[in-house]
Write a structure and sequence with these properties.
The structure holds two protein chains of two kinds.
Chain A lengths: L1 H7 L6 E2 L1 E5 L5 E4 L6 E2 L3 E5 L12 E4 L6
Antiparallel strand pairs in A: 1-4, 2-3
Chain B lengths: L1 E5 L2 E5 L11 H5 L3 E5 L4 E5 L30 H19 L6 H13 L10 H10 L4
The chains are: A mainly beta, B alpha+beta.
Chain lengths: 69, 138
């Protein structure tokens, strides 16, 4: 399973996933449950101060009502 | 381009033939932009992956090998500009130490559109000053 994922996700690729667990050896179990998760393509990642991001139940948003010129 | 018409057949010469990948119809209608806010300050702005409800559309067992590590090749210019506009709106809010909130992002985008600005022009000092003055942030 892992090898099949590595075929589709390379180094420095961005994926969204739920963290199922962190282990003592430093490994992390990720789970791509639901259609919102998986490799992220066609976009850009930006970095802001963590304090500027409000914590909430929902961190996925669809920006609607904006149309390009 | 030269056209030679012989017996009802047209032959073209001195020209170029280009192959363009066709876009699915969905790409023209899909103008929603997905924004994911990470608690660590990382913000992802891109095309939504969940176009339909239900289980994950990505399965390593069924995904074709040919789709692996493919570069971005099917994002039309309008959608690309919209992604840049939304990302720049988040950058502006962060630069002004304002909360990076979905509603504020929409406000900044609509304000820049109302001024007729291109996405790259949103990061100029002039727009920042105008935005600060307009929203009374001074």
């Amino acid at each position: 399973m892992l090898l099949k994922y590595l075929c589709h996700v390379g180094d420095r690729d961005i994926i969204s996933a739920e963290v199922q667990g962190c282990f003592s050896d430093g490994s992390v179990a990720l789970h791509t449950r639901g259609s919102a998760y998986g490799p992220k393509l066609h976009g850009q990642r930006i970095q802001v101060l963590p304090a500027l991001v409000k914590r909430g139940k929902q961190h996925f948003f669809d920006v609607k009502g904006v149309s390009e010129l | 381009m030269n056209c030679n018409c012989v017996g009802g057949e047209v032959s073209l010469s001195s020209s170029q033939l280009m192959f363009c990948a066709p876009f699915p119809k969905d790409d023209y209608g899909c103008m929603d932009i997905e924004v994911i806010f990470g608690c660590n300050g990382l913000v992802w702005v891109g095309l939504p992956t969940r176009k339909a409800s239900g289980p994950s559309t990505f399965h390593p067992d069924t995904a074709p090998e040919s789709a692996a590590h493919k570069p971005c090749s099917r994002v039309i210019r309008t959608v690309r500009k919209l992604i840049c506009r939304v990302a720049n709106a988040a950058r502006i809010l962060a630069a002004l130490s304002l909360s990076v909130d979905p509603q504020y992002i929409v406000d900044v985008c609509q304000h820049s559109i109302s001024l007729g600005l291109q996405p790259k022009e949103m990061l100029t000092t002039g727009f920042l000053k105008h935005f600060v003055r307009e929203y009374g942030l001074t």
